[in-house]
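Tokens in:
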């Protein structure tokens, strides 16, 4: 128990009064109880007084000695405690100071070092305030007034800029703790330098903004997935390539994997590490397929544990089309070289054979063989037609481009094929545009193209039906649309149409459609096939009205 110094006199007086009262009562009672002699009692009372003084001195001596010992022990403990707290304050990494009447009366060594001075007297040398700017000063004073006005006596924290002795400005964070010291409102200010922290936060924020800008501006679709394959990030390029907005997919499973495509699981990515340039098929929102190159990398937390996956998809659909076109060009080049050698080697002897057969047909000795000779001539004409197709592929033909009407050309082709259409029980229905736009091109070549396309459509309708022909003028182009009611073409075969020697007909060579593709390409046109098995096929041929030179 701690005994205050001002309490010691009262303890002595109280103890003396109590001890004296007890002594008088007890000694007088005992004395008068055992003796009635007045003189004897008077003599005994004299000795009793001296004895009382002796006892009282002894009592007060031991009492004072005990009190002084107790007080010395408490003072030593207080000094030890004060020394501990002083060392704690002086060794603190935080600047700790005492503010009284708007003046710092104490600060530890860290505080002096933070300001850049050697003693507390140097704090305000050549400056009026330690706070760097007036705005922070007003905030600081306002907070001080608030906590000392008993509006909010709890400690408060404030960030501001501190001016050092060398005029360097640093960012600091101070905690203001209101206390009463010597009956005065005083504030303990605990301050730490947060310049590096603020710099690190700023650099982190700038790095985050930079990464977000890179991801947002990147033409590569970038996704982030958690360990449950839920989407955490979906950048604008992903919206553009796949069609889904970020708010439609964030927090959900990825919708871009086609049903027939086996997706790469997160455990597989973790097991094999980074995936680089892996070609995969993905699906757009409208259901179309897009070819992409996949790149992946794991996302790690602060402990190095993988908690997600970053996936990047580069759209290589155009690249695939370019590669397919290049492959097709290489095939055409090879076919052209083969066609050139074959056509020239066959055509000359074929012409001779045809001439001799015609000569035999006019000889009466071979009159009974005329049906067979007619068959031979027909087959030779067919061979000559194949050779012409080969020559179209082998070398550029002489082009005699003129302006002509597409509707007139199609009407002529229909007239040529009307007899064959009747044999197949096929009727033509036309829906020609009323615009009198002329097409600039090689009329005979395009006539051969439409003969090939319409004949293919007719041969795909063994049970007859209706064959529709349309012409449409749209967006500075003329579209010719041929719609049949035939057997249709399987989807996997549509991609191979126009390749050398590929045909869906038993006796076909594939060269007719191949030459048609080349002629359309020479006219800067496009051809497109859509088909449903059992329903029919639609062929759309598009030519520009204003042909590029």
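Residues out:
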């Amino acid at each position: 128990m701690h005994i205050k110094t001002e309490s010691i006199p009262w303890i002595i007086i109280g103890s003396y009064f109590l001890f004296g009262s007890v002594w008088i009562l007890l000694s007088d009672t005992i004395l008068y109880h055992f003796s009635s002699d007045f003189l004897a009692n008077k003599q005994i009372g004299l000795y009793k007084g001296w004895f009382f003084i002796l006892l009282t001195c002894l009592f007060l001596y031991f009492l004072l000695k005990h009190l002084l010992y107790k007080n010395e022990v408490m003072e030593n403990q207080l000094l030890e405690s004060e020394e501990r707290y002083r060392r704690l304050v002086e060794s603190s990494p935080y600047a700790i100071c005492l503010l009284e009447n708007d003046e710092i009366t104490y600060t530890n060594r860290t505080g002096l070092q933070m300001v850049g001075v050697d003693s507390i007297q140097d704090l305000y040398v050549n400056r009026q305030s330690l706070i760097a700017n007036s705005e922070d000063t007003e905030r600081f004073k306002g907070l001080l007034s608030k906590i000392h006005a008993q509006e909010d006596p709890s400690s408060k924290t404030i960030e501001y800029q501190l001016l050092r002795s060398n005029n360097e400005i640093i960012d600091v964070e101070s905690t203001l703790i209101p206390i009463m010291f010597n009956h005065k409102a005083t504030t303990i200010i605990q301050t730490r330098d947060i310049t590096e922290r603020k710099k690190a936060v700023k650099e982190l924020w700038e790095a985050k903004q930079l990464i977000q800008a890179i991801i947002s501006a990147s033409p590569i679709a970038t996704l982030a997935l958690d360990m449950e394959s839920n989407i955490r990030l979906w950048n604008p390029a992903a919206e553009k390539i796949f069609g889904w907005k970020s708010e439609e997919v964030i927090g959900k499973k990825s919708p871009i994997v086609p049903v027939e495509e086996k997706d790469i699981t997160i455990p597989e990515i973790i097991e094999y590490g980074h995936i680089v340039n892996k070609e995969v098929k993905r699906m757009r929102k409208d259901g179309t397929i897009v070819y992409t190159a996949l790149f992946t990398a794991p996302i790690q937390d602060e402990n190095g544990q993988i908690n997600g996956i970053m996936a990047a998809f580069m759209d290589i659909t155009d690249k695939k089309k370019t590669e397919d076109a290049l492959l097709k060009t290489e095939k055409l080049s090879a076919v052209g070289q083969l066609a050139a050698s074959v056509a020239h080697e066959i055509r000359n002897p074929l012409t001779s054979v045809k001439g001799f057969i015609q000569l035999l047909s006019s000889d009466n000795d071979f009159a009974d063989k005329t049906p067979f000779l007619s068959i031979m001539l027909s087959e030779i004409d067919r061979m000559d037609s194949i050779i012409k197709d080969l020559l179209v592929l082998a070398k550029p033909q002489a082009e005699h481009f003129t302006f002509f009407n597409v509707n007139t050309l199609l009407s002529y082709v229909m007239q040529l094929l009307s007899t064959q259409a009747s044999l197949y029980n096929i009727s033509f229905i036309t829906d020609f545009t009323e615009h009198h736009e002329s097409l600039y091109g090689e009329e005979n070549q395009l006539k051969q193209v439409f003969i090939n396309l319409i004949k293919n459509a007719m041969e795909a309708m063994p049970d007859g039906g209706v064959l529709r022909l349309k012409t449409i003028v749209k967006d500075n182009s003329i579209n010719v649309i041929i719609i049949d009611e035939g057997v249709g073409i399987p989807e996997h075969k549509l991609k191979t149409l126009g390749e050398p020697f590929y045909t869906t007909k038993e006796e076909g060579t594939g060269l007719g459609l191949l030459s048609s593709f080349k002629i359309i390409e020479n006219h800067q046109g496009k051809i497109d096939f859509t088909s449903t098995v059992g329903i029919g096929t639609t062929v759309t041929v598009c030519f520009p009205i204003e042909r590029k030179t």
